[in-house]
Write a structure and sequence with these properties.
4-stranded mixed β-sheet, disordered N terminus, single chain, 285 residues, 5-stranded antiparallel β-sheet, 16 strands, 4 helices, globular, alpha+beta, Immunoglobulin-like
């Protein structure tokens, strides 16, 4: 009886091990965007980690201001007018300031000034520009221009997703730019990625002298791509096509950048010979 008992226990152990070996091994969830309307939708994802990029089939406008911290009128009325216009045009425009050799100056935003002032007239500071129209000091002229352009049919749209790097990418931004074509087009298209100070306090000349507590908004600080972007698509492009470019960008070179008050924005350009024509933009966040 003792021998039979030992044999029985041995058989039970073998069966238990056999059953254990057949048990389903837990698998790691596949992380990704689970929104089917997003351009970065992952149909195989089982865990949604956010970061879905949805690009509306809409036309937006570009609105910017030439300004400088040394410019008294820029502090007196240019800055407040720009903020008021941006608030009224929220969700309709990508707005930023182009700094003219002032206390924000870096090599990167200096390159933006050089390129944009060569493309669109620089008439001093403060001066406003909307799409392809030089407004001069008439910032209110932006409203009619935005209404006209934003009523147009959009050929393409751009969306941005970024994360703040860690580990080997600490001090860097991991950026993905998505371009979606809504219509069939033909040509050479570029996507530009830019870094803005959404809000930052820095001294500004006003009629009363230098105001050290002046709050600046949507300040253009750096371009991640070339000034007029990097190539994204060319030739005959079908409606519904989506393209993606990825970048790793060191943000520590941007002075005083507060990651909680940063904007990463995009512009689509179409190359025509030596010129770059504005196609569409991401509106400010």
């Amino acid at each position: 009886m003792k021998t039979n008992t030992i044999k029985s226990f041995g058989l039970i152990a073998v069966i238990a091990l056999s059953l254990a070996s057949c048990a389903e091994v837990p698998t790691e969830p596949i992380k990704g965007c689970m929104n089917a309307a997003a351009v970065n939708y992952n149909p195989e994802a089982s865990q949604d980690v956010g970061g879905c990029v949805i690009i509306p089939d809409k036309q937006y406008s570009l609105f910017y201001k030439y300004t400088a911290t040394w410019c008294g009128p820029c502090g007196d009325w240019g800055g407040p007018a720009f903020v008021s216009d941006c608030d009224a045009l929220t969700g309709k425009v990508l707005a930023f300031t182009i700094q003219c050799s002032d206390d924000f100056a870096t090599a990167s935003n200096g390159e933006m000034y050089t390129a944009l002032s060569a493309k669109w007239p620089y008439g001093g500071t403060p001066n406003f520009q909307c799409n392809n129209v030089a407004l001069g000091t008439n910032d209110g002229g932006a409203f009619a221009e935005v209404a006209t352009r934003n009523a147009m049919d959009a050929d393409a749209g751009v969306g941005i997703h970024y994360t703040i790097g860690a580990g080997p990418n600490v001090g860097k931004l991991n950026i993905n730019a998505y371009v979606k074509f809504f219509n069939a087009v033909n040509g050479e298209y570029y996507v530009g990625i830019y870094i803005l100070h959404k809000e930052i306090v820095k001294g500004q000349n006003t009629a009363g002298g230098m105001d050290a507590t002046y709050e600046h908004h949507h300040v253009m600080m750096s371009h991640v791509t070339g000034v007029f972007g990097d190539p994204v698509a060319s030739g005959a492009i079908g409606a519904g096509k989506v393209y993606n470019l990825g970048f790793v960008f060191p943000y520590t070179d941007i002075p005083d950048l507060d990651l909680t008050k940063m904007e990463v924005v995009g512009i689509i350009w179409k190359k025509n010979g030596a010129n770059f024509d504005l196609v569409n933009v991401t509106p400010n966040t």
